[in-house]
Amino acid sequence: FVYSRVGGNRTSLKPPADDYNDTLTFEARFESGNLQKVVKVAEYEYQLTLRPDLFTNKHTQWYYFQVTNTQAGIVYRFTIINFTKPASLYNRGMRPLFYSEKEAKTHNIGWQRIGDQIKYYRNNQGQEGRHYFSLTWTFQFPHNKDTCYFAHCYPYTYTNLQEYLSAINHDSVR
Description:
Elements: E1 25-27, E2 37-42, E3 45-49, E4 64-68, E5 75-83, E6 97-100, H1 101-107, E7 112-113, E8 116-127, E9 130-140, E10 148-151, H2 158-169
Parallel strand pairs: 3-5
Antiparallel strand pairs: 1-4, 2-3, 4-10, 5-9, 6-7, 6-10, 8-9
């Protein structure tokens, strides 16, 4: 995260000393965003921890986050390490959802299922007697310096719902 600090201080983290920085930047402080921590474990590999889903007993299934500072043609690996379900549709062919602002603007392409080497498996971590499971996938971004999003399913926010209900309420035919 660019601005995360313990205690909620939103001051900017210092940029690296050199002018060139190929580290991806992650963000999830937007409606329905869900990301707690990101660790860069290798040059193009990131380990992600999600916040528990709201109103559950610390279950973790939903993810939705933004990635910037992308480089095209590089194989990145993403691994979410704290899922709580022992089985997943990812092992039966489901793939993460991806959205690129540049693809949307230049080619009118919206959300799409992506990823290679997708695996969902029990890892060696856990908490309070529960085992955690990981989802890992590789991916090449289509553009340099793009703003992209990954999600479990198509995001549908509370604001989307309120706008829909308001439209129904103001529809004279209904």
